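Figure 2 data, in text form.
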Amino acid sequence: MVHSKYCAAGFKGPPVAAVMPSQLLNEPEQAPDEALAGLLSAEPSLARLQGHRVVVRRGLEQWRSLGQPALVAVAAAAHGPWPAGLVGAGLLTAAALGDLETPPAADTVTAAVRAAATAGGVLLVAMDLPADRQRCGLAAERARAAGVTVQLLLVADDCGAAETRRGHAGIVLLCKVLGEAAQTPGRSLQDLVAIARQVTDGLGTVALGLPSASESAGGGDADPATMELGVGVRGEPGARTVPACTSAEAVKLMYDHLTRADAPTPFSLPAECVLLVNSLGGLSEIELLVAARDAQRQLTDRGVRVARLLTGSLCSWRARRAVSVTVLSLADGHVPGQLLLHWLGQPAAAPGWPDAMPPGAYSEPQLMEPAAPPPEDTSAGPAAGEPLLSDRDALLVTRCVERASQALVAAAGRLDELDRGAGDGDCGSTLASLGRLLLERLPTLAAGRPRRLLTQLADSCETIGGTSGVLYALAMAAAAAGWSSEEQQPWLAALGRGLDAVRRYGGAQLGDRTLLDAAEPALRAAEEAAAAGQPPAVVAAALAAAAEQGALRTAGMAARAGRASYVSSDQLTRPDPGAQAVSVWLAAVAGAIREDRV
């Protein structure tokens, strides 16, 4: 996965004439220079050629002394990180940048070539696009007239256009191969040209623009129900529009288009390849990874061995919502295909290139077995030393769980209504699902084994999800972990430990308008009643009464936690639903205890 340090913040957005206020730019015309200054500030290994928008490696004199061929790339500034972010050992010697949407002028390209020139010559690389071809051609002729040995390489890997090939993201893979080859002692400029021909002969790219992708080309709003198949790297139109579809369907369309028989230059899938799935800047990480997964799988299904998969935004275009798929053949040619693979896997001291890839073929992700959980305790009897309840107390516990669950189911509508003014409106529904789940599991609950019971309750709470489910699961798990029958009031102590966990992990305190505003006063009232020697029914009644009063006090209370904290306190005129839910089920528990102890 590519995690580039290179930031092309100023390189993306709509055309200069229609810059949106939401863009993080100053003056659009200055964006390439300002972004370049940001890159150089972050990357001390790079330098700028004075008077030109050219990035070079530091220590260029040492590189020249080796006599190896230099590699210079040319592009518009909006393609970041290509090419400026890919200058460094193992990749480019220098890069010449133009304005946001146009390649550099010929004098800038000439300056880059002359700055990088060595006794081994210069290989000048650009996408095969009209303006790039013309300006680089002029620059190459000027450099030759000045005595520099230079070869111009125009890359036309884009198979998506209807009539002719053009440059696209495959240029990045090509330059990584050439950058490594250029470092090999004894490699001549002619060797690099031969390697480049081998690579370009086996290089094919196709791109798909998602809805709104054409806006950056000035074409207005795109139809949200369509995608554009075969879009160009610089906003050029695609070959045709297709209905919007899933990632897997889109990838199939791209491969079918890449290998179509009527392509300007037909492309055949190789037996083994390197695969690049590239975002043109506007895809989210998850969209790109899903597309990468589908691209790899479908190549495998088509009989192609994917030796390496790269993903990321290596060649972008102004945050364009588009994805490109590039296939690089590893067939033997001027050099063995496995040497190409080796060169691609080597690290490069360039900020926009991913870390070195490990050798070996790409395959389905290897799955490790997770650490085995403790064996589930399904035995009817307790473990040695585990505290037990009497049969009568176990029956009472079962009844308490049953009554609390029934009460939550019955209160669902009322609690949801309270939650609509301060949250998602689903507090009651969520807790009602917990109630129904516990009623379903009631026969399997270990009511006579408190620690085991609390663990079962925690598991059930976690199952329902949502904030309520997590908080209740935390409380039950903490209560189970610290259970001790040697305490005078073990159930109240367990409740206290549970509330401690809710405070610690939930980030709320008493007075923040949460379930704690009902639960904490209830616990204190019950502890006081128990300390005074009151019987269990009276203790339970104190518990329920304090919870009810605490819940009522949350009406009008300013919320400082949860979703309600985003709502003005002027609108919070009714009790907090979470606190009210605590009051509901504690009242039901108190009723069950009162009936049992009469």
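Caption note: DSSP finds 18 helices and twelve strands in the chain.
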